[in-house]
Amino acid sequence: MRRETYDAPASLQPPTINTNTSSHATQTPEPSPSPMDTMPAQLTANMPSAATPPTNGTTAMLRKQSSPMMPPFMVSAPGKVIVYGEHAVVHGKAAIAAAISLRSYLHVSFLSKSSRTVKLRFPDIQMEHTWDIDHLPWDSFSKADKKKYYYDLVTSLDPDLMAAIQPFIDQVSPKAPESIRKIHHASACSFLYLFLSLASRRVPPCVYTLRSTIPIGAGLGSSASISVCLSTAMLMQIRALSGPHQDQPPQECELNIERINRWAFVGEMCIHGNPSGVDNTVSSGGKAVLFQRRDYDQPPLVIPLHSFPELPLLLVNTRQSRSTATEVAKVANLRNVHPVLTENILNAIGLVTESAHKLLTSPDFDPTSPTALQHLGELVTINHGLLVSLGVSHPKLERIREIIDHTGIGWTKLTGAGGGGCAITILKPQPPVLTNGHKNGTHHDSESDESDTSSEADCSASIISNSTKLKYKILDSLEVKLENEGFEKFETTLAGDGVGVLWPAVLHNGNEEEGGEEIDQEKFLKAEGNIGIERLVGVSSSKRKGVRDVREGWKFWRPWEVPE
Question: Which one of 279, 364, 366, 452 is the catalytic residue?
Fold first, then answer.
């Protein structure tokens, strides 16, 4: 995967690392000492260090060196949606994908040294398994021709290493139904491959607990989000990351994100075999990326779009299962039967993406401009119409679009492969109606209009207040209608932060003692559903009608921000 290049600070460059390549590039590193031996001091600044043993007296000579138990910490990474370019991207056109504020959360806690176990808990898919650390195949992963270091590029899975971990994967959920066991085994494979590649047999006993607010199997990058969380946590444990902190230079942020992304891609290979790399790239870095793959024998082009504005997004899950392969085959068949027409539709979708990219990268682009948002929104509508022409929509997706379009509250399209899955709506900055009557073909009952638009037009503060009230009244009404028809609605944010860290796992939730509330494993497991998870550890404040500030404690790598 080729990305925009940058020169990393010399103090952050371990031997032979190539920061101008990405997760899909190839590299043959020279033999190097262990990561802990080569780690620059700068990378350990925010990490706990081993206790220094006494240096005087006979007792000091006899006392065994000890180190304090690391505090629990958390990692969070977002899901993603395709904003423009579905299906055309399969045929060599560009697409744009962006992060969403639905996220996975990983809690890492540590056990006493005598435990000598590592546990993976994923209650959302009813998975839990414990491995004996000393029995894992460390010898296989530490052979001279097999060993990988934190700065290495891994572009394919080693068959010998996969064979070495297979017996430990087979131990997971042996009595579960085949469909469930398959999911559990994929998760275990990703975890073990990363764990054995990055850790060592001296790793402290620990528990990895995963929770996710991202619907699984809906094309929203849930597996990539989890891979990013695991990659980040394990790199932190070997002190291979610096920050994140607010004074970090953009180049240093990029280096850390790239390091996380490389190993997250390895986790994705364990789950999907031959992933595109887009999902883990968006989840690692946040914001948005332009993605294009003209030749499947070559790495794809991936360009970060840090200028993509953070926008309120409505995401609706049809709960209709679909097959990406089936939908891709539909378009391929249509192209065979009607080659000229289909090619023109695919070209048009490619032009939609180009138009969005041109706007986002123009020197005078203003992310707060209503005109710019209108342009992006209209492209969403056009893109959906073209996808319908390809035959990849679904009656449930069209019903969602019909319900939302009737309110006039935003621009709606299917996202991903289609045939089910999810629809996204970029919300307009103002509701469609601020006075009685109709606008843009939409209509609201007079009671709503009278109660929410009674302020005088020349009082801007009142207009904003009533505008906000009306917007949320429409959203509340939409939620009822969509749920009554069996759909699942999420109010999210588009193009926000990528991977984040909460070190230590302490948050200020507004009702705890001074110093914050420690998030332990038990509290994390007891959080009920998405609402419970977000209320306990969510990255954003939970006030829907206020500004979605990042909660105190969570930190992110943000290369688009320049330190003052």
Answer: 279
